[in-house]
Design goal:
Blueprint (H helix, E strand, L loop, with lengths): L2 E4 L5 E6 L5 H16 L6 H10 L7 E5 L5 E8 L7 E8 L5 H23 L4 E4 L6 H10 L10 E7 L14 E4 L5 H7 L7 H8 L4 E7 L5 E8 L2 H7 L3 E9 L8 H15 L4 E7 L8
Parallel strand pairs: 5-6, 11-12
Antiparallel strand pairs: 1-2, 2-3, 3-4, 4-5, 7-12, 8-9, 9-10, 10-11
Helix pairs in contact: 1-2, 1-7
């Protein structure tokens, strides 16, 4: 099933459901978008792959738009952290050369229709959150508000950046603690420590073996895993954007081991890793009230 529409130039654009074999083409769309000047914002390629592997619970909750040549120029997905959750996140990607307003409106219309279907199927009310586009933000906010969204000033995210030109201090650990790369045989213990929403095991296995993604863990003197950090980069993004930005994706310390500098040690090690692979800047995204994450 597909729905045709015309952009402002009267070109035919077709909307259709997302299929699993579309993944690489959707990632290519995201890289094209980020390479056009938005490489310093989420979602990264790795973040979108996580969402599509571990937060897309029903393939009907994603759709894409193609031009007359069959190139994907728009993508949307409704993600949620848990299968039974009623809170959704709306992820949108639009090709940088396209009429943004035309496709953005089509995306919101599709999203509203899909959410109505889900609410009827589940016999419950739903909520959905979306981050306004970085470019033409006021215009996008006006469009979102016309569709019933309200601007929320609490619980927002902030971006932090760090230049990697200067020497990075060596990590300091308590006696007997060690920083090691995660290996596949430790994934069960890693997932037990992981405090964010669950990630599919197959996705984490893929990441462990990818040269542009790194998992670092700290083990205490008994060998127990007590903290971790994930960092990443994309050489294709670097090539397209000419901006060599690496990301600190996740960092967490077990509650019983906080206050010992483990997060700082991991952060320094992660920054060293990114710089060793060619990054000249590191970034992370955190909530505005996460003071520790901002320092």
């Amino acid at each position: 099933m597909s729905t045709p529409l015309h952009d402002g130039g009267q070109r035919m654009i077709r909307q259709r459901p997302y299929q699993e074999n579309d993944l690489e083409r959707v990632l290519h769309l995201l890289i094209t978008y980020r390479g056009a000047g938005y490489v310093n914002r989420y979602p990264t390629v790795w973040r979108l792959k996580l969402l599509m592997s571990s937060r897309l619970w029903d393939k009907r909750d994603a759709a894409l738009w193609e031009d007359e040549q069959g190139e994907i120029i728009g993508f949307v997905m409704l993600s949620k952290r848990h299968a039974e959750s009623t809170a959704y996140g709306l992820e949108r990607v639009i090709h940088p050369t396209q009429n943004r307003t035309e496709i953005a409106e089509a995306i919101l219309n599709w999203s509203n229709q899909r959410l109505v279907e889900i609410a009827r199927e589940r016999h419950t009310a739903l909520t959905v959150g979306v981050v306004p586009f970085e470019q033409a933000t006021e215009q996008d906010i006006a469009l979102l508000e016309s569709q019933g969204f309200a601007l929320m000033q609490n619980g927002y995210n902030v971006y932090m950046g760090c230049g990697l030109e200067k020497p990075i201090e060596a990590p300091v650990l308590p006696i007997g603690y060690e920083i090691e790369p995660l290996i596949e045989s430790e994934l069960a213990e890693y997932q037990a420590l992981y405090g964010f929403a669950a990630v599919m095991l197959e996705h984490q296995k893929e990441l462990i073996y990818h040269p542009q993604y790194q998992h670092l863990v700290i083990k205490n003197p008994t060998g127990k895993m007590v903290a971790y950090l994930e960092c990443s980069f994309s050489r294709e993004e670097w090539f397209r954007s000419r901006q060599q930005i690496g990301w600190i994706d996740y960092v967490e310390t077990h509650a019983d081991y906080q206050g010992q500098g483990l997060g700082l040690a991991l952060m320094r090690t992660g920054l060293q890793h990114l710089r060793a692979h060619g990054a000249v800047q590191a970034m992370l995204i955190t909530t505005h009230d996460n003071i520790a994450g901002q320092h």
